[in-house]
Amino acid sequence: MLRNRLIDAASRMKPILCGAQSLRSLSQGAPSKLTTIEVDDKSGIATLSMNQPPVNTLTMELMHDLIDSINQIESNKSRGLILTSSNDRVFSAGLDLNELLNPEVERFRLFWTRFQDLWLALHLCGIPTAAAINGHAPAAGCVLATACEYRVMLPDLSIGIHATRFSFVISKWMMHSYQSVLPRRIVERALNQGKLFATQEALEVGLVDEVSSSKEEALSKCAAFVATFDKANPLARSLTKRMCRDPDVRDLLKDRSADLKECVDYVTSPHFQEGLSNHLEGLKNRK
Amino acid sequence: MLRNRLIDAASRMKPILCGAQSLRSLSQGAPSKLTTIEVDDKSGIATLSMNQPPVNTLTMELMHDLIDSINQIESNKSRGLILTSSNDRVFSAGLDLNELLNPEVERFRLFWTRFQDLWLALHLCGIPTAAAINGHAPAAGCVLATACEYRVMLPDLSIGIHATRFSFVISKWMMHSYQSVLPRRIVERALNQGKLFATQEALEVGLVDEVSSSKEEALSKCAAFVATFDKANPLARSLTKRMCRDPDVRDLLKDRSADLKECVDYVTSPHFQEGLSNHLEGLKNRK
Amino acid sequence: MLRNRLIDAASRMKPILCGAQSLRSLSQGAPSKLTTIEVDDKSGIATLSMNQPPVNTLTMELMHDLIDSINQIESNKSRGLILTSSNDRVFSAGLDLNELLNPEVERFRLFWTRFQDLWLALHLCGIPTAAAINGHAPAAGCVLATACEYRVMLPDLSIGIHATRFSFVISKWMMHSYQSVLPRRIVERALNQGKLFATQEALEVGLVDEVSSSKEEALSKCAAFVATFDKANPLARSLTKRMCRDPDVRDLLKDRSADLKECVDYVTSPHFQEGLSNHLEGLKNRK
Description:
In chain A, 54% of the residues lie in helices and 13% in strands.
């Protein structure tokens, strides 16, 4: 006989993972090339590295492989998941802005839905998650980091949701990730400014939990965080994590299509297209 | 073609500003006497000063002029709005308590509705807002300050919602202003105590962001805050601010008449009238 | 003529206290043995001591007496309520886990309902409340402490909701108590870990407000906290406290039976029973 909270958990998982599960079946057998998974035999912790040169831009394909890898790690009963980058300068540069520039609507709908799926997969991952932020983490790179339970960052990097700088208005669920780690006063200001926090500032406001001097040290601090759950029953831990995140997750799940429609409408507006063009032009000129 | 978030923003603005817009048309042509607006030609920032002697009590008229001025500044595409007082000892003494003493119900309904309008106008103002708190800011004076995005205060002043000291029970939306800048634990305690924070205490808990030694310095710190938005696209910034404040605003908008009824019922209760009388008597005796 | 907020308060109290009121009538005349109440004639503050040897386990009977005593103190117009323990090593060891081990369902339903009643009685108590935490406060012991408005703790003790360590998944309203005093980031982590905070750590994160070196000093600091409300009108204070706590209370009240069903289903699941058995076995072996 299945118990209520368990059933509840299972039924809530279904709509979330069905997309991802079908993805997984597609890639079964073939190792993903844009992500790599290394499991430490001794600790049982899986390190998931983003590995899409040059800057781990979240393309349709990288997001597919990330969802696939998260599910694989979760179902293989790893003791924890550490998200990191195989690139030493950039954790992830965020969403592929080319998908936002003069988008073909049907393709953009798939793109945004996949980003929702990735947020849900990471946000609801049943095992402990931590981010070893070994490179810059702007925009969606920061969203991925805040969807984890712990963040260790290397010095002299930047992290933050700077969407307003390229005229973008983030969705509510992305704001909720920010609010889950930062005080409201700081969230509003940082989102409005499009602020990128330097490592030290990020530590001071609580956007990251620790600073480490090397990637190795960051991974080992993340592993130490995973070990803090050793005395907790894994299923009770997983259901408790879900309860804590339930308001944010429910807010997206009850209205995924509305979020999608709103985003499509905004992204295809002349206002946004103009702002994005100017931003991309500015980036080119800086190079 | 208007996009969804834009439409949404526009349609949400309408019911909010219609009251204020009609007010504006009344005062068109005639400069307001209870508020003054100075626009810095170089920075494009508008300074809005409350100027109702002796202590900027929020009367029906001052609230009218404030709403009018906020709308004017916003529609004139100023780069930011700084709220301050032309009185060096008092920022604003809060609501006109004479309107709460044995009120004529119809007039009180107008009074409270106008306070709701003022809160909404300031809370939703599309451009960056900051308060240069150059005098005491008790009760509704504090609510105005917390509805802005940034607060700079002079030393040796007091700020806080001390409603319980004169038997008043504030509305939920006033509490939300407090919660948007302070941790929940501190909000409950301060509201229950009717606490007035000294400048230094206010800085420590985060109720104000900076302390400055003169009004000039406060204005210039506020201007520096407005400048932190220079890299943000103005419309994206405005929509993002609205998203952050949406839960609080929606909570009032969905039930303005219920809030009004509840407030009228409470204010006209013998319990409150007795408490208010005693408070006013105490103030007289102190003089 | 009763005013709206007053009526509202009264009507909301009724369903909450009716269970407790009937309890009170049962025990009328006979002094409770598991709790003692001492009222300081000078300050008017009532000290409520839990007095069930050996470790103030929250049994059906102790919870009955606590609800009864809280209501008695509230209706006797005491100036404040200080919750403490007559045991110098343990404030309260939390719920009686024997009630969770292979429970008879009908009895467990009564047990859980009584815990809900206790949470509501303490959470909504109209007068100022403080906890003098003179011994360990794990699990429900911590929930009682966080339902008070202020916490003073002695050194070298532990406090926290460590439910995941014995496979339990707490209810949302227990999480809300935690969230009312701690930042969200810390709540999620601590609940998932089943963390017990040492006194000094608890002070640093804000789970307790002050540390004192003796029980006497703790009681006197709690009394000083109660005195901070001296300038507040008692009814306005009580209604303001209720407004601050309304979202959490409403969340439970609108769905008490669903919370009960969910909890019964979880507690009677083989998964939980196995985890609890192992935990109790471990405790025995430690002795």
